[in-house]
Specification:
This protein has about 325 residues and is an alpha+beta fold. It has helices at about 15, 30-45, 50-65, 75-95, 125-135, 140-150, 155-160, 165-180, 190-205, 210-215, 240-250, 250-255, 300-310; strands at about 215-225, 235, 255-265, 265-275, 275-285, 290-295. Strands 2-1-6-5-4-3 form a six-stranded mixed β-sheet, with helices on both faces.
């Protein structure tokens, strides 16, 4: 991607210098104000923080070449630009993921300070929902995200997507049905933390009976190593099969591992560290039936942002999640 000499800062210089961002020229103050929303849209569309940053950078370049004197609402202009860029990028990303080695999982993001990532609501942010959104067309995904997470009116979404309002309503309705059909109603955040703590404890001990008691009948385990880290090449499903798999590697997988609690994508997760370096991130999706999904992220590039975020809990794992 061509880089402009005027690149948008990752964080405003005003934070450290005490300067009002409005004093910046070249449209920077308007862009800086909209940036959390732009990243929030792009991340939900693509499931990758790195790709979302590229989209935001591209939106900045287009903002620089736009006739800003004719733009009445900079945030609306930038959000429209970002969404349309994402639709094109999502189509390309889908093609790349068809050849991805092993299960593809979204890149986790730190939400310890902003659970909504620039949105009015924290919708379409959990890893489980992002996985489901991957199955939608890019236009369906955009309509759903703008409506459910950012509370855009249908007329606004129609303008962004250049569609009739009736078509937008159909897109959102189909996306809602897909999400509802693909996922049971999730448990509370407190219950999710409790189940995750119980799962980690049972997994470390290789306790098959305890694991099976935690699992829904159709539990599935997904491991994303991207072909770079040893991981299961295919998802595993079924209470007994998943419990047996996790118990089988307990004797060596957890040796020398320390665990720290983190918040990613709006829910509790755990980092697995070896020799002080992050080796994996594990989290679950759960319903009243128990743990429905276990997600293991092991690809180093997907762990980099969480490792650098500084939001890790300093105390090692003690069997109970930190209260947040």
């Amino acid at each position: 991607m061509a880089m402009s000499q005027e690149q948008p800062p990752q964080a405003s210089p005003s934070v450290s210098l005490g300067v009002d961002p409005a004093e910046y020229d070249g449209g920077l103050s308007a862009f800086f104000k909209a940036r959390p929303r732009l990243f929030g849209i792009a991340y939900r569309m693509l499931g990758s923080a790195a790709e979302a940053e590229d989209i935001v950078q591209d939106a900045w370049l287009r903002w620089q070449t736009a006739n800003r004197s004719e733009v009445e609402n900079p945030t609306a202009f930038l959000a429209t630009t970002t969404t349309r860029l994402c639709i094109n990028a999502a189509q390309s990303a889908h093609s790349r993921r068809e050849t991805y080695v092993g299960p593809w999982l979204p890149e986790p993001v730190d939400t310890s300070s902003d659970a909504n990532l620039g949105a009015e609501r924290g919708e379409a942010l959990s890893l489980a929902v992002l996985i489901l959104l991957e199955k939608l067309s890019s236009t369906e995904r955009a309509a759903y995200i703008l409506r459910e997470a950012f509370d855009y009116e249908y007329v606004e979404i129609a303008d962004i997507l250049q569609l009739e309002q009736a078509n937008v309503r159909q897109l959102v309705s189909r996306a809602r049905k897909h999400i509802a059909d693909g996922r049971r109603a999730p448990v509370s955040s407190a219950e999710q933390r409790r189940l995750l703590a119980a799962f980690i404890d049972a997994a470390q001990k290789g306790n098959m009976a305890a694991l099976e008691n935690l699992f829904a009948q159709d539990v599935a385990s997904y491991s994303d190593g991207g072909g770079l880290v040893r991981a299961a090449q295919k998802p595993l499903s079924g209470r007994e099969r998943v419990a047996k798999f996790i118990a089988a590697f307990s004797s060596h997988f957890w040796t020398g591992v320390t665990i720290e609690w983190v918040e990613v994508n709006g829910q509790s997760s755990v980092l697995l560290l070896r020799d002080g370096s992050v080796a994996a991130l594990a989290t679950i999706d759960a319903s009243v039936e128990g743990i429905d999904q276990i997600l293991w992220l092991m690809r180093p590039s997907k762990l980099a942002a969480v490792s650098r975020s500084g939001q890790r809990v300093g105390a090692p794992y003690s069997g109970e999640p930190a209260v947040t």
